[in-house]
Specification:
The chain has 585 residues and is mainly beta. The chain folds into six domains: 41-136, Sandwich (Immunoglobulin-like), CATH 2.60.40.4300; 138-217, Roll (Ubiquitin-like (UB roll)), CATH 3.10.20.470; 221-345, Immunoglobulin-like (Sandwich); 350-448, Sandwich (Immunoglobulin-like); 452-527, Ubiquitin-like (UB roll); 531-584, no CATH class. The protein contains two helices and 39 strands. The strands form twelve sheets. The chain has a five-stranded mixed sheet, with no helix packed on it. Strands 17, 18, 19, 20 and 23 form a five-stranded mixed sheet that branches. A five-stranded mixed sheet has the order 26-25-24-32-29, with no helix packed on it. Residues 141-216 form the Mucin binding domain.
Length: 585
């Protein structure tokens, strides 16, 4: 609307946004109700604009229509004199920034802005040009999972995707959504329903978008395991103690699949082959649990019992003492109990017979004679052998011995051999009982021989009289040489008779050696006579006695005996060693 006075001057120009005084500024949509007074000539107008642009930050597109407003200024030429501008200054009112859901407004510096502050301008101020940017608010898409049966919220508003207002969902959101669903299916749930995903984020920044998934718990398989074990242990049969050998443990595992209610966890039955219905619930195929067990690891294998001979044991035996080389294979069931098998090892005892000989040796020795010290006859060796059992435990090393025994404990009698010219000290070595603790016995039979004499005989051939008969000259053992002293003694005897006046007629030669018999040598002599003076003294002794007592009276110098002697002599012709008287002169 334009208002002019009678001179044609604009008094009000709505498009320009200014009025002359005393009219008050109004906006372009409010009609002017002011009343013009006075005459105004030569009016000069000036306007200042304020423009506010509203743009989306990311695209630069207009978010809200541009806001524009103007302030007008005027001055009057009064008779060639320009008056002051009216008004001297004016103010653009504050402008609230329009609100766009899902966005927030920022200025060119990125600072949040909710209103454009009032701006005071003058007639020569530049136009105000302001841009407000709208930045999309961050948005979150969440999901909630609810158990349909129990109405229990399993997960609540868990972030699924992040974006900005009105922005399309990320391309992987659907896959993530499906993963959530699959995760619950993997946990034993089945899908009841799931909200459809929106195409884009909404523009409500105060409330997250949320999609809800309803699931229900499938029944579950609970794997149960049972192990049946056979333990093979090894024992010393004699002591009953377990040997320090690791037991053999054989385990057979059985499994069964229990079907557990997804709603309350109760046992529904058993599944044999993993079959499920179209919702993934396992089928109940067996209700008797004992029939649901299946073997998982085979059977008990045959087990060879170890050979412990190096440790001193015999081969393994069972509890009945029978040979037990191996424990047979076993076929347990899940209902079988654990089994313990024992193998027994007798301690090996080596039994040997110890021998103890007790010996008697009979030796025959010459103890005199020419063979003195030599063996007279071969020795006789006798032996009584005692035996006893010796038991050695090969495990403990313990040794046990029995009593010594023998079938014959006698040394038999032994006759000493006869040897000419010798006499044994024992004609028979007597029988003797032997004992195990006896030392060896040595018996020596001594053989002695008597020495044989060499004698001499002297015969007086004068009257064929034997003067010396078998007089010992020497003695010795056979084959021994006569000692030199025998020759000297023999010669001495002959010389003796020579000295006696005999003449030697003959004399046997002495033997050089002794023999096993006595030897005699003979000397024949003849008597030779000689003159021999003989004297004879006759003595008279006068003694004095007490007649009464008949005792000799011994008074020195008075009654000493008186001894008186008379000596006579004669010459005789004698012969022979005995001075046989032949003639007296």
């Amino acid at each position: 609307m334009t208002v002019t006075n009678e001179q044609g001057q604009e008094l009000v120009n709505q498009e320009a946004g200014y009025y002359l005084q005393p009219y008050v500024y109004r906006n372009d949509t409010t009609s002017n109700s002011g009343i013009l007074t006075g005459k105004v000539n030569n009016v000069e107008n000036q306007q200042v604009k304020e423009t506010i642009h509203y743009l989306y930050k990311d695209t630069g597109k207009e978010a809200v229509p541009t806001y524009t407003t103007k302030l007008g200024f005027a001055r009057i030429n009064d008779n060639g004199q320009w008056l002051a501008w009216t008004p001297a200054n004016d103010t653009f009112a504050a402008v609230d920034v329009p609100v766009i859901a899902g966005y927030h407004a920022v200025d060119e510096g990125g600072n949040p802005v909710k209103a454009i502050a009032a701006i005071t301008v003058k007639h020569d101020s530049p136009d105000a040009d302001i841009t407000v940017y709208y930045v999309a608010d961050p948005q979150v898409l969440t999901y909630t999972v609810i158990d349909k049966d129990t109405q229990k919220v399993l997960e609540n508003q868990i972030p699924l995707a992040n974006g900005l207002s009105d922005e399309p969902l990320p391309t992987d959101t659907a896959a993530k959504y499906q993963q959530v669903i699959q995760g619950y299916q993997d946990k034993g749930y089945y899908l009841v329903s799931a909200d459809k995903l929106p195409a884009a984020f909404d523009d409500n920044s105060s409330v997250n978008q949320n999609v809800t998934i309803y699931v229900a718990k499938r029944n579950q398989l609970h794997s149960e395991e049972r192990t049946v074990t056979r333990t093979i242990t090894y024992y010393d049969k004699d002591t009953g103690k377990q040997l320090d050998i690791p037991p053999v443990k054989q385990a057979v595992k059985f499994t069964r699949q229990a079907v557990i209610s997804g709603q309350d966890g109760s046992l529904l039955g058993y599944n044999l082959d993993g079959k499920q219905d179209n919702r993934g619930n396992y089928l109940i195929e067996v209700t008797n649990g004992d029939k649901a067990w299946t073997p998982a690891t085979g059977e008990w294998a045959a087990s060879t019992n170890p050979i412990l001979t190096e440790k001193g044991y015999e081969l393994a035996e069972d509890a009945n003492g029978q040979a037990y080389p191996l424990v047979a294979e076993g076929h347990p069931t899940a209902l079988s109990g654990d089994e313990e098998v024992k193998a027994f090892y007798p301690e090996k005892v080596i039994v040997t017979n110890e021998e103890l000989p007790v010996k008697r040796t009979v030796n025959y020795v010459y103890v005199n004679g020419p063979r003195k010290g030599e063996v007279a006859a071969p020795s006789v060796h006798q032996q009584v052998t005692f035996t006893r059992p010796k038991k050695v435990n090969q495990v403990t090393g313990e040794t046990k011995v029995g009593e010594w025994t023998t079938k014959d404990d006698q040394f038999s009698a032994v006759s000493s051999p006869a040897i000419d010219y010798y006499t044994p000290s024992q004609v028979t070595v007597a029988a003797m009982q032997a004992k195990p603790d006896d030392p060896d016995i040595t018996v020596t039979v001594e053989y002695k021989t008597a020495p044989n004499a060499v004698t001499y005989t002297i015969i007086d051939d004068t009257d064929d009289k034997t003067l010396v008969d078998h007089q010992s000259l020497t003695s010795g053992f056979a084959d021994e040489a006569l000692p030199a002293s025998a020759t000297a003694a023999y010669q001495g005897a002959i010389d003796h008779y020579r000295q006696l006046g005999y003449t030697v007629v003959s004399e046997d030669k002495l033997p050089s050696k002794f023999t096993h018999i006595d030897q005699n040598v003979v000397v024949h002599i003849l008597m030779k006579n000689s003159l021999q003076v003989e004297h004879q003294t006759t003595t008279r002794t006068i003694t004095y006695y007490d007649r009464t007592t008949d005792k000799q009276i011994m008074i020195e110098g008075v009654t000493e005996p008186v001894i008186q002697q008379a000596t006579f002599a004669r010459q005789a012709i004698v012969a022979g060693p005995h001075h046989q008287l032949l003639v007296i002169r």
